[in-house]
């Protein structure tokens, strides 16, 4: 049975909690006009607010500890607002973190605001190497949330810093796993070209990159669900071949190649129709082929979809070869069994 003393203590506790809530509400209530301006990208209103309260430029203005910069970057509505804000703030203030420990660059990466990411990274490069929630860098957030354009930019400017080590050990393998989960197999190939050792690393659960892609049935020709005509088009539509040079510049070569011979062989009519349907590389240049196929893509959207699917399959197949080569290079039967056996069983099980 509760005594009067116990009830008194409970009441005191409730009063303290209510007073704390009121203090928090009072603290952020005055920033409501600034929050609205940041959400709308209205720099004129924001500037007038800053004229009256200079500290608001860098202060947390929401209970989530977001600054005006966090909010503006997260909306992605206007680069002008973000640019004016960044120019008005001291550089060190760009490192401000919200309640999740994320900076404005983390937010830009998460929502795919590439323009804001460029602005922030060029203004203050250390932002690229600041770890936020779950110890992730901005490049990790772009990958895990499927923001390909932002990810491509961040990969170009995030160097292999000796202190932050973005591409080493756990940080590196998690980045590769995020990229694979988002289906960016071309970017995964680029990562492996730069850092081949990622093929031999595992995350804490024991999964590796080969195990990850082994579960992606739709990433391979055998997982395609195409009708007769789509299989014929698939057999002859060209894809881009990516070659990676030592300085990581990609050279795209339009080439009429067939990476799905098994599909054509399963359908006896494919070669017959293909002889009339395809544009032979012996009669016209590859450049002309690319132009003609581009016309087909624009005229028939389904052709574009089929070409993109074939491109994905091509990247996935190249990726598996690359991962297997990386594992084989260890020359260690125990490591091979650890990294390759489980993915093999997964692939067989899923067909």
TrEMBL record:
Cited Pfam families: Ank_2 (PF12796)
Record SMART domains: ANK
InterPro entries, per the entry: Ankyrin_rpt, Ankyrin_rpt-contain_sf
Top-level taxon: Eukaryota
PANTHER family: NF-KAPPA-B INHIBITOR BETA, PTHR47303
Protein name per Swiss-Prot or TrEMBL: Serine/threonine-protein phosphatase 6 regulatory ankyrin repeat subunit B like
Organism: Actinidia chinensis var. chinensis
């Amino acid at each position: 049975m509760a005594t009067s003393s116990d009830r008194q203590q409970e009441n005191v506790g409730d009063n303290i909690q209510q007073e704390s809530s009121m203090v928090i509400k009072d603290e952020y209530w005055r920033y409501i006009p600034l929050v609205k301006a940041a959400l709308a990208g209205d720099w004129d209103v924001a500037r007038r607010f800053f004229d009256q309260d200079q500290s608001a430029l860098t202060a947390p203005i929401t209970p989530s500890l977001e600054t005006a910069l966090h909010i503006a970057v997260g909306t992605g509505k206007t680069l002008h607002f973000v640019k004016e804000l960044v120019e008005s703030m001291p550089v060190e203030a760009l490192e401000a973190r919200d309640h999740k420990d994320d900076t404005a660059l983390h937010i830009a990466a998460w929502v795919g605001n590439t323009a804001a990411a460029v602005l922030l990274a060029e203004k203050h490069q250390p932002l690229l190497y600041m770890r936020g929630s779950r110890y992730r860098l901005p490049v990790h957030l772009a990958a895990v949330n499927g923001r390909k354009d932002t990810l491509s930019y961040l990969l170009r400017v995030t160097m292999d810093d000796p202190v932050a080590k973005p591409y080493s050990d756990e940080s590196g393998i998690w980045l590769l796993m995020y990229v694979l989960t988002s289906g960016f197999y071309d970017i995964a190939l680029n990562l492996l070209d730069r850092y081949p050792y990622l093929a031999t690393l595992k995350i804490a659960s024991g999964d590796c990159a080969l195990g990850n892609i082994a579960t992606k049935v739709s990433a391979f020709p055998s997982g395609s669900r195409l009708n007769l005509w789509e299989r014929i088009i698939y057999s002859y539509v060209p894809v881009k071949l990516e070659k990676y040079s030592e300085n990581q510049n990609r050279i795209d070569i339009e080439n009429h190649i067939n990476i799905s011979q098994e599909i054509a062989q399963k359908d006896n009519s494919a070669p017959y129709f293909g002889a009339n349907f395809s544009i032979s590389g012996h009669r016209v240049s590859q450049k002309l082929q690319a132009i003609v196929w581009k016309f087909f893509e624009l005229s028939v959207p389904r052709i574009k979809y089929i070409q993109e699917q074939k491109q994905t399959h091509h990247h996935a197949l190249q990726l598996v070869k690359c991962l297997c080569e990386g594992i084989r290079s260890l020359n260690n039967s125990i490591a091979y069994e650890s990294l390759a056996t489980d993915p093999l069983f997964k692939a067989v099980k899923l067909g």
